[in-house]
Amino acid sequence: MSRRERIRVLSVETLSAQQRRLERQTFEYAREDGVKQVLDREIYHVGDGAAVLLYDLARRTVILVDQFRLPAYLRGESGWMLEVPAGFVDGIAPEVRAREEAEEEAGYRVGEVQQAFKALMIPGCIPHLVHGFVAPYTPADRIGNGGGLIQEGEDITVVELDIDRALDMVASGEITDAKTIMLLQHVALRVFR
Q1: For 49-190, which CATH superfamily applies?
Q2: Is 154 strand, coil or helix?
Q3: Which of 71, 120, 142, 152 is most buried as measured by Cβ atoms within 10 A of its Cβ?
Q4: pLDDT > 90? residue 2
């Protein structure tokens, strides 16, 4: 019996279908020891995403964006987070979406993007696959102010940081976004060596 065959979905109940979809799924799970269990899980379907870290190797800098995130605020933090430009794929090729987000959020037009990873960020409850990319930039690639889209509630500030400062901010807990941390570590290991 394959691993997939050990799972049998018994029921799916839609709890919310506002902007995204929240479901309660009941399934039967055949354990390694052969015992079957019936389990319930709430699954939040948000769709896949694309994220891109822009880096300037010559100047040893990276581009991040600073924006408000309600879940961070609800944890007792300020709510403002430094992150890489990112957005939902929504049927567009991930590398295309990454380039679009670099323009929309950061104001930079980039050419080729290189895939750094594909990762399930919270696989216990969200089937959200993030496609992480990196791309070189120079000051000449700046085509606008960035800032995001007002109609999406975005109020974004573009931040250019020295790579070592950005890594220090990860270690100190100032940068807490997982995809951003992963992409910063990727360029630290593979680009800025």
Answers
A1: Nucleoside Triphosphate Pyrophosphohydrolase (3.90.79.10)
A2: coil
A3: 142
A4: no
Name the residue ranges covered by the structural domains of the chain.
4-45, 49-190
49 confidence band (pLDDT: 50, 70, 90)? very high
Rounded CA-CA distance 120/31 in Å is 23
- pLDDT of 57-76, one tens digit each? 999 999 999 999 999 999 99
C-alpha 1 chain-centroid distance: 34
Question: Whats the size of the chain, residue-wise?
Answer: 193
How many CB atoms neighbour CB 74 within 10 A? Answer: 9
* 26-51 mean pLDDT: 94
What does the alpha-carbon distance between residue 151 and residue 92 come to, in Å, rounded to a whole number? 20
Cβ 101 vs Cβ 93: under 8 Å: no
Tokens of 37: 């269990």
Separation in Å, CA 183 to CA 43, 118, 130, 143, 186: 26, 11, 11, 23, 5
**Phi and psi torsions of 6, nearest 5°:** -80, -5
The candidate with the shortest Cα–Cα distance to 134, out of 163, 155, 170, 173, is 163
Kindly report the pTM of this predicted structure. 0.91
Q: Which residues of 28-54 are buried (b: 16+ CB within 10 A; e: fewer)?
A: eeeeeeeeeeeeeeeeeeeebbbbbbb
Residue bearing tokens 């929504």: 90
For the chain, the C-alpha Rg in angstroms (whole number) is 19
